[in-house]
């Protein structure tokens, strides 16, 4: 799934036909059609039906469009992270991040970095998981990565701080706040696919706590994670910061007791960092003025992955 596919889908919803949507986003109609049909195949849902040239969104299509608008608004709120300054003094700083860390961290770090390095362009790309992010760094397609730890041992990692892991549930879920890990036993949850790295880490956390959540949805598709909560199907483990940005007041967010946290860091291939990358690391390590991101790490922090 790409941001471009989401923009195309939103354009179709706004303009009603493939032709009008393609014109609105300045792309050939066949290219737009292929991209959106590929998105449907990836999500394994029918997003729209066609009657002649007119396109009508299905119920699932409306949900995905709603989530796509939210995701695009979040990305667009990052202040022009790929814009070139008028007089650049050197090559861009290429940053790669996973989507959840992008929402929780990148949006706050970039503006602070630009205040100290206004002439250094920053290019941000996104990868779906830690393995893809590590490969992007190892193949030289990015200079530094923002990712939750631990990470590929072939990379150099600088632990920055921790983000709180919270339980995000459909509105009306009968649970206390804060919630204990024991109450996850039997709780309907959306979880990563079996066999994935994150699923193994979550299963380790559940085994440590002696609980067995009920996996209603098992997928690596983040759109499905979000829609499962909004549709009242299941609860989800997320970083607090990204949860607020994604759900707002449309879901219930509970801390754990004891509090859970996940460390994240700046990672790169072995070797010294350049001046811009060192500054970026320092900026990322500083706790935001709001205090919303930095939390104390609990005894379970090493085993509390968030999707």
From TrEMBL:
InterPro entries with a match to the protein in the record: LysR_HTH_N, LysR_subst-bd, WH-like_DNA-bd_sf, WH_DNA-bd_sf
Boundaries of every HTH lysR-type domain copy: 1-58
Record GO cellular component, one term: protein-DNA complex
SUPFAM superfamilies: Periplasmic binding protein-like II, Winged helix' DNA-binding domain
Key word Transcription present: yes
Pfam families on file: HTH_1, LysR_substrate
PROSITE patterns linked to this entry: HTH_LYSR (PS50931)
GO MF annotation: an example: DNA-binding transcription factor activity
Keyword Transport tagged: no
Keyword annotations: DNA-binding, Transcription, Transcription regulation
CDD domains: PBP2_LTTR_substrate (cd05466)
Family: Belongs to the LysR transcriptional regulatory family.
PANTHER family: HTH-TYPE TRANSCRIPTIONAL REGULATOR CYNR (PTHR30346:SF28), TRANSCRIPTIONAL DUAL REGULATOR HCAR-RELATED (PTHR30346)
Name of the featured protein: LysR family transcriptional regulator
Native organism: Haloechinothrix aidingensis
